[in-house]
Structures are given as C-alpha cells and as structure tokens.
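Milestone M4 deliverable, item 7.
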Amino acid sequence: MGTHTPPLTPQQKKDYIDFHLYSELLWLLTAATEWSVQEQLKLQKAGYNIQVYAMDSAFLHARVLFEFFVQRTTNHHYGVDQYLGPGASLTTAIYADNWSGPLHAFLIHGQDRSQPRQLPRAGGSKDLNRMPLEFAHEILRLWKEFESRLGGSAVATDQELGTLARGKRKMVVEAAGHVLTSVTARKHAYDKDLTLQPIFAF
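Output delivered:
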C-alpha cells in the first residue's frame, strides 16, 4: 500500500464506505441535481451563481470517486482494490480515455477555457461544463457494480459491505430528490410554471 494509505482493516473498510465514500456520493448527486435545477430555471440573477458552484462541486466529487473506482491504491488515495482484491479495479473506458484529462485540468489548472473541448458521451458530445449529470450517472453505475461485486463475494464481511454500500446509495438518491422539493426550488419552479422531475432512481 502507499505511504498515506495503509491497508484498511475490516472495520476501517466499513467506516470508509459509511463516511468517506458516502459523503462523496452525497455531494456529487445533490450538486449535480442542483446544477440541473438551475439549468432548467435559468434564473440568471446577478450575484446568484449557484449553478457554477454546483458544477464545480459535482466535478470535484466525481473526480474523487472516479479515482477510487478505476485506479488502484496509490500513496495518496485509496482504490477499489482495497475491497475487491489486489490489482482489482472497475472499468469505465469513457472516463479513462476521454474524461479524466479534461476533468483533472479543469479542477487543478488555470488553463485557457475560451475554446472548451467537447467530450464524448452517449448520444453525442458536450462541453465539459455541461456534463455534471453524465459524470454522476457514470459514478452511480460504478457504485452499483461495486455493490454487486461485494455482494457476490463468498466472504460474509464483503457481503455486509455490499449491503452497506447499497443502503448508502439509497440514502443519497433520496437526498438528491430533496433538492427538487426545497422551498427555493419549488418557489422558482412555480413562478416559471415548471415541474422538476427526479433525476436519479434507486
């Protein structure tokens, strides 16, 4: 394992899902939902830039979870191999081949953004800053595969971790739904005669 990533004990694995991974998924899905709400409302009020804040938050938490799911443990972050065994990782070719570089650069480097690169996705291409929902849906797909792999293990403690991960996903999807029913979202949607629909399903 890495300098700052010693092997996780069974209890630490539980705690890591229960708090760290859960928090990352929570803020990813709620931020992506808020971004979508703002995209639909098109408020465009000076000083009220919540859509930008939501986008940045969604990208940050998506990147953390992509690193966990598709990269092995390094000196600085844990990977899914801590749970699924040495050398294990989940696959998402579209992230590794097309999304990881632009996403990393957007978050870490003050690069020229006057001509944003289009990123491939199902049904065509989009600018990076239009893709919070695509990233969130791909992370949810990986999370479900993580649950399935743990649940399909012959080891009882792995099965328990799979059940825990599934429960956390359910909690997060419900929390993301609450974004749509917040007082602010409902008021603005009412004023614009819009119906805000749930984005993520359990």
